[in-house]
Amino acid sequence: MKTLVALLRAVNVGGTGKLPMAALRMICEQAGFGNVRTYIQSGNVVFDTNLPDGTVKSKLERRLAEHMGKPVGVMIRDSAQMRSILERNPFPDAAPNKVSVLFLDHTAPDRIAATAKRLADEEIVPSGAEIFIHYPSGMGRSRLGLPAMNEGTARNLNTVAKLAAMASEDARSLSR
């Protein structure tokens, strides 16, 4: 058994991507995942499974599409990957709420910053299947556009740290 984190793309508490977290937990439980827990209202779920990551992703995406009536992208990471993301943060001195991690299903292009539109004071660093973005003036003020933003889903470092802790807790309890 392993613990995984699923990060849903374009899911929120209102608007077009509305998905209550109770419904997300139910969808995951019906898919056969155990110890299902959500974190904040933006499509973050931690659960246990024996299935391969690719199977989990396709199963969850299929069930979400049935529930939502449209495709919902899902990024899957295990507890070790979540810890690694925190360790790879290229902006350790920045406030965690001003650093965002864009999760992708593929390796981020090395020259991703060259594709940026409306770049102001933001700093962009690709690392594996994630892109770290520092927003010194705050995310709410930024008008940054990256093509990868249409493929992935972003979380600030506070959320990444909480999900990493939740997944590590679960992983430790499974190994006992």
From TrEMBL:
Q: Which Pfam families did the record assign?
A: DUF1697 (PF08002)
What domain of life does the UniProt record list for this protein's source?
A: Bacteria
Q: Which SUPFAM superfamilies match?
A: SP0830-like
InterPro entries in UniProt: DUF1697
**In its UniProt entry, what is this protein called?**
DUF1697 domain-containing protein
